[in-house]
Amino acid sequence: MQIETIIQKYHILTGQCVDFVRDFYEQLRSVHVEQLERKWITITLLVIGLLVVIIVGDAFFHGVNPPSKVETIDSAKLHLSKEFAESNLGVQLDDKGEIMVRMVAGRYSFFPKHIAVPAETKITFRWVSMDVLHGVHIPMTNMSTMIVPGYVAEITTSFPKPGEYPVLCNEYCGLGHNHMWSNISVIAKEDWTFPATVPAEGIKP
Amino acid sequence: MNDAAERKLALSHLWVAFIAFIVACFMGEYQVLERSGLIPALDSPTVYFASVSTHGVLMGFVLTTFFIMGFGYYTASTSLKVPVWNNKLAWVGFWISLLGTLLAAIPLLTGNASVLYTFYLPMQAHVAFYLGATLLIVGSWIWCGIMWVMFKQWKQVHPKQPVPLAMFATTANALLWLWASAGVALEVLFQAIPLALGWIDTVDPGLARTLFAWTLHPIVYFWLIPAYIAFYVFVPKQAGGYLYSDEAARGAFIVLAVFALPIGFHHLYMDPEQAKGWKLLHGIGTLVVSIPTLVTGFTVIASLEIAGRLRGGKGLFGWIGSLPWSNPMVLAVILSLLMLILGGFGGVINASYAMNAMIHNTAWVPGHFHLIFAGTTVIMYFAIAYYLWPMLVQKPLFSNSLALIQLWTWFIGMGILTTPWHVLGLLGQPRRISSVVYNTLLTLAWKPYELAMIFGGLILLGSACLFIYNLAKTQLNPVSGVFTQRVEYAEAIHPVKELPEYLNDFTLWNRVIAVLMLISFGVPILQFFFMNTFGSPGWGY
Ligand code: HEM
Ligand SMILES: [Cu+2]
Ligand SMILES: [Cu+2]
After folding, report:
1. Where are the beta strands (DSSP E) in B171-302?
2. Cα angle B253-B118-B170, degrees, rounded to a multiple of 5
3. Which residue range(s) make up the domain with A157?
């Protein structure tokens, strides 16, 4: 009894929806659209459709995605956390032998101030902020992410070319924003040995 | 119809907009000078960031909001041929917005709100800044309400008739803005103000950025729609022809209003607090919203071609030469479209997140939006002002040739300012830096581009002064006599006699927006209340 009324209601509802769509479509058909315009709109839709297919394909099949870990952390207690304690920052090898870099952003520098990593190797960066919003970008590379207090920004990349690169803060974080930077040495793969990290200068208060 | 009351209302809004504009242009030129390091005595991050914060607020919020309100009132009353509904209330809105502007100006100019126009929490400004911004928005909501009422009242009196295109688009913009401003309003009312007053100890910066992104995309369409209105309702007539398609115009405005809203996460591509699936969804929406712009480009160029051919232009491109290039509206639309095409390429790069990683938050970004916003959009604000001013003050324009020089110099100056700005971004220069102190060879390559920007800015500043001079002269001219010119709205080749309700009303679209917003922002906002998040205390700068 109960179920029957629900089913009946459901039927009426779908009926209404179908009517609505049909009605909408009919009305749209009645709108006058020039031949040439119709062609242009079709081309536009095809181009946009193609672009959508490309980005969706890249995301699903090639794993091309922006940094989006959605992992929270207490930015006020970083020094008490195990992972981002001073002694644990910089370049590390994880249990699978992959390179993991942990960095803290704070006004006005990135800590540790200098690190060395191998070229042409997969590297995972984990960035956290100890105060306000920052952004980090290594120019000419795609190592770029926002560092939002309260969240861990994780990004995986690799550097094709050895060299000395600056690491620049690219989100306004206070009057000293332009002083916020550090260095990274990308070393030819065969020359790099762990730990090649220059000892961290320590996190200034 | 005696429209003295409407003219006064529109003029007051437009003057506030343009005074904000000219003040901010001087700041802009100071900024390019300061950051280049050419004059060491100028170097001061304190002054620089007070200036950039004020420049951004004046250009992004004051110029635009007041221009849109003033233009909207005049469009509503001239296209519907009725007085502005509840003139007193409109003035209340004006004064609330102006009060808000002045209130925010105090901390901005004294360096107590150097948080930039995006005021990302947990960095904190003086509470007067947030209160002022809130009042500015509240005043604009009154404008939205008045547009809505006038739209509905006209429809009641003229059942089944198509609402004039100009009013239809203005109402679309009012609806867009009501939805768009809700995000930042929530952020300011529930996070920024309580934090600044000490009612709460911490805020979640991730939530704040999500709410701001809700506003940040549609707001640029709020700014852009007046330019599109001019494209559709003024340009064809001024060029001596007809609007190619009235229906396509309506469709474009609807898609703009609907799809500009649920796509703000393209501003959060690089953020850790939202998941990749949501970013992808918003990324697809971002591509969809480029459709109305492509349709607009087509319709405007087609309308121009009709005009060019009616004026005797022959051949594939001959019609371009026979357009009335000495008409400011026509010249402006051509220059505006050129900048839109260039900026559009940049926009596609920003929208694709693999490429976006290379330029995110670099100098490329201000380069891009000065081209699209200060270029494409603002040049149409100029054209609208040149067109309406004589009718608003009932005197002929002081000088048409000055107007043409002004539009050309704005275009050239914008090219010289923004091209090097884009290059700087590709060379890795971060945005929002007051001087270059990085100790790396990379910065050597930046110097010449920064110097070129000073030159571009100088041309723009001169152009801006010409604009204000021309308007002021027009108004102060002693010329008297009967002035009879009226606003002329373009006619379509096939004027619309009747329209389906979907193309003549927003009730359905309003619901569609509600559903899309729920889908694209529902979970991403709710997640902050279910995750184990950690708030941040407020910080100075
Ligand atoms: C005289 C012409 C202009 C010059 C020389 C100029 C220059 C600048 C400079 C140097 C910045 C700082 C960017 C940074 O630090 O990264 C800036 C910011 C800004 N400009 Fe302009 N500008 C001009 C006109 C305009 C116009 C007409 C508009 C819009 C209508 C505009 C909108 C903005 C906005 C919204 C910001 C804030 C950006 C931010 O906070 O990152 N500007 N401008
Ligand atoms: Cu910074
Ligand atoms: Cu956007």
Report:
1. 202-203
2. 20
3. 75-202
Q: How far is CA B377 from CA A96, A149, B78, B256, B304, in A?
A: 53, 35, 22, 15, 19
Q: Which two tokens stand for residue B3?
A: 């429209």
Interval A88-144: pLDDT, tens: 888 888 888 888 899 999 988 998 888 888 888 889 999 999 999 999 998 888 888
Residue A166 and residue A106 share a domain? yes
Structural domain total, chain A:
2
Lookup: tokens for B17: 């907009």
Q: What is the pLDDT of residues B171-192, one digit of tens each?
A: 999 999 999 999 999 999 999 9
What does pTM read for this prediction? 0.91
Closest residue of chain B to A170, computed from CA coordinates? B430
Residue A171 with chain B: CB contacts under 8 Å? 120, 361, 432
**Cα–Cα distance between A71 and A94 in angstroms, integer?**
19
ipTM associated with this complex: 0.85
- Of B386, B528, B356, nearest in space to B470 by CA: B386
Residue A69 lies in a domain: no
Which ligand gives the minimal distance to the CA of B365?
1
B13 alpha-carbon distance from chain centroid: 15
With CB atoms and an 8 Å threshold, state whether A148 touches B209: yes
The answer to whether residue B217 is catalytic is yes
B435 CA to centre of ligand 2 in angstroms: 13
Q: Which protein residue has the closest C-alpha to ligand 1 atom 23? A: B28
Whether residue A109 sits in one domain with residue A56: no
Within-domain flag for A67: no
Best mutation site among B49, B53, B55 for ligand 1, i.e. most ligand atoms within 8 A of its Cβ?
Answer: B55
Q: Known catalytic residue: B55?
A: no
C-alpha distance from B246 to closest chain A C-alpha (Å): 9
Tell whether A165 and A193 lie within a shared domain: yes
Q: What is the pLDDT of residues B212-221, one digit of tens each?
A: 999 999 999 9
Assigned CATH topology for domain B4-537: Cytochrome C Oxidase; Chain A (1.20.210)
Distance (angstroms) between ligand 1 centre and the Cα of B228 equals: 22
Q: Are residues A170 and A87 in the same domain?
A: yes
Domain identity same for A50 and A96:
no
Which ligand minimizes its atom distance to the CA of B369?
1
Same domain, A31 and A99: no
The reply to whether residue A51 touches residue B283, judged by beta carbons under 8 angstroms, is no
- Are A185 and A122 contained in the same domain? yes
